[in-house]
Specification:
Elements (H helix, E strand, L loop, with lengths): L3 E4 L4 H14 L4 E5 L12 E3 L5 H11 L3 E4 L5 H6 L1 H22 L2 E3 L2 E2 L23 H20 L3 E2 L1 E3 L1 E3 L12 H11 L2 E4 L7 E5 H13 L11 E2 L3 E3 L1 H9 L6 E4 L3 H9 L7 H7 L7 H25 L1
Parallel strand pairs: 1-2, 1-4, 2-3, 4-5, 5-7, 6-8, 8-12, 9-11, 10-14
Antiparallel strand pairs: 11-13
Length: about 325
């Protein structure tokens, strides 16, 4: 029986991944953990507070739960990491080393997300190959490259079945943005419904690689269930879905919110980070090795975002009307 421990379960990916794992394997097979107290976030399965920097606590939790796999999502994202790079390095690297060490001791399979941020301005932009120059210019990117190498090391040295994906920007209505460079693509939907306008922190023509969260969650599950003998790379597979600019996203939003207006006030830090990343990833090896296929294109994603957000807003509106 699979027993999966999720770290960072209260985050943007963790929220939806935990829900999907519960639906697939049942609540008894999943343990959601986060550095935050479970009383502050909702979970569909047993949940505990856990700091991955505490090696003994991590080992005890994995052993007590009888985990067969760890989905390690706890990390500091790109923009937040630049505000305190030393803290970001400590959390992103020491937390991962602890997870890999415990996995080696306990025989757990590991999933670790990487990112398009693992590339830098010297990487071919369109598309970025699976294997290419990786010289990121952010602390988040540095920790992602180092994390990919650590996963490979623990696989070759200790036999840990560590797998991962290089995600593009991720878009979701289920959880708020987590401090990333692509957060505008989530914020814009909330602003459209609330205010009918949005001021974007990137230039109108900034083309970025993006993915809707349901595709990302499905990719995690699929790569973890792929036969090991089919995986040449094992971790850090490029995956992609759609590419668009803020201006193109705004045009699609107007199909649902007529009169929506967008303005632009580029933030130097976030714009420089976006400009350093490829505009598209080459995911041909993921397609060949484990059958990856995305489902959501821009129009599908926008329509489903509004469906989900309107469903969230309906209960609040009903409560307000009843007061």
């Amino acid at each position: 029986m699979k027993r999966i421990l999720v770290t960072g379960a209260a985050g943007q990916i963790g929220t939806e991944l935990t829900s999907s794992l519960v639906a697939r394997f049942g609540p008894g097979g999943i343990l959601a953990t986060d550095v935050r107290d479970p009383a502050s976030w909702a979970s569909e399965c047993p949940a505990e507070q856990l700091d991955c920097l505490d090696l003994d606590a991590l080992r005890d939790t994995v052993t007590r739960f009888g985990a067969t796999a760890i989905h390690h999502l706890a990390a500091i994202l790109s923009v937040t990491a630049e505000a305190d790079p030393v803290r970001a390095y400590r959390i992103n690297m020491n937390g991962l080393v602890n997870v890999l060490q415990v996995a080696a001791e306990c025989g757990c399979r590991v999933f670790v997300p990487s990112s398009i941020a693992a590339f830098g301005p010297g990487t071919p932009r369109d598309p970025a190959p699976q294997s290419t120059l990786q010289r990121p210019t952010t602390m988040y990117g540095v920790t992602k490259v180092a994390g990919e190498l650590l996963c490979d090391y623990y696989h070759s040295r200790f036999g840990v079945d560590a797998r991962g994906l290089r995600f593009p920007g991720l878009i979701s209505y289920a959880a708020p943005p987590g401090g990333g460079t692509t957060d505008y693509a989530v914020e814009i939907f909330h602003a459209a419904l609330r205010d009918g306008r949005y001021t974007c922190f990137l230039r109108a023509d900034t083309r970025m690689d993006m993915m809707y969260m349901p595709d990302a969650i499905r990719a995690v599950i699929e790569v973890m269930e792929a036969p090991p003998d089919r995986l040449t790379h094992r971790n850090a597979f490029n995956i992609t879905a759609m590419q668009f600019t803020p201006a193109e996203l705004a045009t699609e939003i107007r199909a649902h919110v007529p009169g929506f207006r967008i303005g632009y006030d580029p933030d130097p830090l976030r714009q420089s980070i976006a400009d350093s990343w490829p505009s598209r990833l080459d995911d041909s090896e993921a397609r060949e090795q484990w059958g990856w296929r995305h489902e959501y294109e821009l129009p599908d994603m926008v329509a489903d975002m509004f469906r989900g957000l309107n469903a969230q807003r309906a209960p609040r509106a009903a409560v307000s009307a009843g007061r």
